[in-house]
Amino acid sequence: MNTDEIRQAFLDLMQENGHVRIPRAPLIPRDDPTTLFTGSGMQPLLPYLLGETHPAGTRLTDSQTCLRAQDIDEVGDNRHTTFFEMLGNWSLGDYFKQEQIPQVWTFLTERVGLDPHRIYVSCFSGDEEHGIPKDEESAGIWARLFAAAGADTETFDAGTEEHAAQVGTDGARIVFYSKKNWWCRGGSAADMPVGEPGGPDTEIFYLFPHVEHDPAYGEHCHQNCDCGRFIELGNSVFMEYRKTEDGFELLPRRNVDYGGGLSRIAAAAMDTSDVFRTALLWPIIERLQDLSGHSYEDETRAMRVIADHLRGAVFLAVDGVQPSNKAQGYVMRRLIRRAVRFAFDLGLQENFLPEIVPAIAGIYDTHFPEVAEHAEYVEAVLAKEEQSFRRTLRKGINQLEGFRESGVTGAELFLLYDTFGFPIELSVEEAQRQGIELSEHWHEEFDEHMAAQRARSQASTTLHV
Predict the structure, then answer these.
(1) Taken in order 360, 364, 366, 368, is the CA torsion positive or negative?
(2) Fewer Cβ close by (within 10 Å): the C or N end of the chain?
(3) d(C-alpha 302, C-alpha 428), whole Å
(4) How far apart are CA 276 and CA 332, in angstroms?
(5) What tens digit of pLDDT does each residue of 391-414 get?
(6) How far apart, in Å, do the first and last CA atoms of the chain sit?
(7) Among candidate residues 83, 33, 93, the one with its CA nearest the CA of residue 58
(8) What stretch of H or E contains 51?
């Protein structure tokens, strides 16, 4: 199945089960100043998970575009992207674990056709300190589904990811983790304020047996290992508890929140651990190969970074963001300029961004036609930013190379930012790429120069009032 078929199969199954499809929310959250971007499928629905009534009812489904700028440094491996699409379904006080887990299983094994013997899961191991029991119910449901498919049902209580890496899990199909499988907005049960809801979640992983475990991530591999042998496909959160003065109590209305990564599910369906080979990214890679004359195999990291960053920038432009030095615009500028920097290494020294937009629009022409509808505008936004940055890119790189012997301080990094338009993160990355030593206190030095510039700017504004 291709990605369009997988997305549609999920939405069809959920609608067959009584869910109402809702449109994607924009990447810029509405009425939520606490975060820059929509970073998960559940984020736009948080008010309804916390008790408000949704106008579409108690069973909802969608495919939500998301952006997580905090993952930008991870992009380049086989599975991390800043922009991604989450398949989601929600039960708002309606059904619970007994219905949710089997319908996700049906989607993955029957509709997508994944091998049940390569699916592994994790569940919550409980929190004795706060009186929250082990999630034996979810584990039991999984065990029945695995047994019916002829797969083993062995369990292992790992506690923490660190412990699992130290001792291994004996290949258990169902592994219990503590904090890793607890969901709340505060991060842990201990940090939750009184009145805050939370609950256990169960995560789904797919095994790629041809990927060898990398001991850099621990002596033993396990479901939550980051070596790439297991890839998380999604998880179901069961919001069933509320923090009280004395501990936790059951919520009167329990909710289900499921999110599944479309590109990862598509990669599993193709039996590849590389999400960039799916139809959500490969057309961009192919266009980069045509334009540069380089192969994906020879320039893997550069092409992955460019493909991911430009896709994110395109959707940001569609949702009304423009490059700037503040908030969402700064992240968009960083994505574009980082893509241009990697394109420089591929020999793409002419304005190439408008050449990529049609490939991205073509990927989403069926489910997100707004990309093609705004393609001309998006091309203009990206081209303007690329032209602006290219004028100073070589100068900035040469400037950094001049510090090869002496090292670079926060003052020089500020110069690159202020004079050449290099985002600070890009300058640091470039210095590391060139093996240039960074001052131990570069961050504080940079902040001091930035503060001084703001003070000068404010004084100038006051004088001209």
Answers:
(1) negative
(2) C
(3) 17
(4) 21
(5) 778 788 888 888 888 888 888 888
(6) 63
(7) 93
(8) none
Quick one: which of 371, 385, 275 has its CA closest to 6?
A: 275
CA distances from 374 to 7, 189, 340, 368, 371 (A): 23, 44, 22, 11, 5
DSSP 148: H
**CB 67, CB 37: distance < 8 Å:** yes
Query: What phi and psi, each to the nearest 5 degrees, are found at residue 20?
Result: -100, 130
How far apart, in whole angstroms, are the C-alpha atoms of residue 293 and residue 274? 21
Closest CA to 363 of 412, 408, 315: 315
Confidence of residue 258 (pLDDT cuts 50, 70, 90): very high
H or E element, residue 47: helix 46-49
Rounded distance between C-alpha atoms, residue 300 and residue 22, angstroms? 36
302 class by beta-carbon count within 10 Å (0-12 exposed, 13-18 middle, 19+ buried): buried
Rounded Cα distance, 87 and 385, in Å: 32
Half-sphere exposure at residue 143, Cβ-oriented, CA atoms within 13 angstroms: 14
At 76, list the tokens.
């380049």
- Nearest Cα residue to 333 out of 415, 421, 252: 421
If one counts every other C-beta atom within 10 angstroms of the C-beta of residue 146, the result is 21
Judge contact between 371 and 327, C-beta under 8 A.
Answer: no
Q: Where does the pLDDT of residue 465 fall: very low under 50, low under 70, confident under 90, or very high at 90 and above?
A: very low
| Structure token digits, residue 217 | 């991530």
Read off the pLDDT of residues 89-99 as tens digits, 9 standing for 90 and up: 999 999 999 99
Structure-block tokens of residue 96: 């619970």
Taking each helix axis from N to C end, the angle separating 424-434 and 375-401, rounded to the nearest 10 degrees, works out to 50
112 contacts: CB under 8 Å, gap ≥ 6: 1, 6, 9, 265, 268, 269
Amino acid at 292: S
Which residues touch 104 (CB under 8 Å, ≥6 apart)?
204, 234, 236, 258, 260
Structure tokens at 440: 């131990």
